[in-house]
């Protein structure tokens, strides 16, 4: 049996150690255990930090490249705006990368230590394997809180920031698409051109979609130009020598210049800021829950009064008509929003605390497998997590959003991992 060095430690001596000389050969069973614990803690933290930071950097970089490339292709972003997206995509990449890299660092370090019999050496000295594991758990708890924070800012700050980049770049995006596809459209308008000559749009056709009381408008011109005004948050479309057709009813010619202003947000192809709970910050969700409950209460009182009045008047056919079906759909929508608001904090906290759960399972699994290979222990541990943890989490989220199960059910996957870790630790400590 051969051991590799754990750490050379001064001022300790082992007497009558039944194992061959190792890096632990200068430690003592009867020496100052405080210094020994400090050395072991520092050793584990250093090894974990090296693997974790290296893996986190590589995985985050890969996810940022994929995320930026996807957004750039979807929105046809110019290169300058592509780099502006990186800060806003970074939290989204980190919230996914941190738990996985925590598991990778755990299985790598503890698998190597176990494969080199360093845990056997510490057991021979009367030291529990938990002594080497507790620094990992302490770091994992800290990273769990960090991941919860990343989950929060990724959806509340990151998404809105990415949208803002797309909105501010609407002029360049429109010119780019008009040059290649001869067409650019958003939710509010569409523009087609024969060709693009520099900044000049040749033979443009601008279609403004019907919005509220404003009818649809079609504008054709000899030439046009796009100008983005960020101070006023509008996209100005300057058209030369053309005509305006208002819903096929009125036609007006303009021989000189006509300027059409469209709000940048309406001109952009970016998704509108969503009021879905998944886009809200944790700090405002409790307030939103209270408002939603009040809105449901008022709607129920209003509907009850309306139903009572119609029954008194004998309008029973109305109670089963289309009007009440619409009211029922509106009430269902209000309850669904309330369920989503209640679920969202549990989703973010459970996703964040997957860090500690992954480490809790990964450490004893790696020690038990005693495999030095870098990826073997990781995949043997990650595959059960992939099969059990994520499906349970998804099931809990879907059920809680639908109101069929309590929001706390989102934690089912975390609970399973904790129980699994307890079982593995008992085996490691016992044998």
Structural write-up:
The protein has 431 residues and is α+β, with helices and mostly antiparallel strands. The protein has a domain at 187-267. It is built from twelve helices and eight strands. Strands 1, 2, 3, 4, 5, 6, 7 and 8 form an eight-stranded antiparallel beta sheet that branches. Strand 1 (183-185) and strand 2 (189-192) form a beta hairpin.
List its traits:
flat; 431 residues; eight-stranded antiparallel sheet; alpha+beta; 63% helix
**Rg measurement, Å:** 31 Å
Helical residue percent band: 55-70%
Tell me the fraction of residues in β-strands, as a range: 5-15%
SSE pattern: HHHHHEEEEEEEEHHHHHHH
Mean pLDDT: 83
Number of helical elements:
12
* Poorly predicted ranges: 1-31
Content-based structural category: alpha+beta
Largest sheet: 8 strands, antiparallel
Seen as an oligomer or otherwise, the chain set is: single chain
Strand segment tally: 8
Give the termini separation. Answer: 18 Å
Shape: flat
Write the layout of secondary structure elements.
Blueprint: H1 33-75, H2 79-115, H3 118-124, H4 130-168, H5 170-181, E1 183-185, E2 189-192, E3 195-197, E4 200-202, E5 205-208, E6 217-229, E7 234-246, E8 250-263, H6 264-267, H7 282-312, H8 316-319, H9 322-352, H10 354-369, H11 376-402, H12 412-430
Antiparallel strand pairs: 1-2, 2-5, 3-4, 4-6, 5-6, 6-7, 7-8
